[in-house]
UniProtKB/TrEMBL annotation:
Organism: Shewanella denitrificans (strain OS217 / ATCC BAA-1090 / DSM 15013)
Protein name in the entry: S23 ribosomal
Domain of life: Bacteria
Amino acid sequence: MNAFSFQNLDVWKRSSRLACDIYSELRNCRDYGLKDQMTRAAISIPSNIAEGEERESHAESARFLYFAKGSSGELATQIFIAIEIGVIEKQNGLKLINETREISAMLGALIKIRKGCVKEDAADYIAEPRT
């Protein structure tokens, strides 16, 4: 695997953007416990993608992608709760949840690629074409 190749992955780009969006959405949140949990989960997604892609083998990469996928589920749950308790406006929250679902699906596909279940060519919608 190439150094910093994670930066070419659309799933890393989208999850990084999602983390920024979570920070923006919670800018004025006074529930510091929830805010801390949500920002940690959001940051964990692109961080685990990056860490996995910097590992030496596809098996190690897949392990960290599973961590990222778990964090996306954790974040979606926290967004649901934030909507219910009035911390996040419902329309904004549903958009964030949809993005976590799409990221999770992309991670699932990338995990299958890393584990050899799917050919590398199937990654076209996950990673930008290599030049």
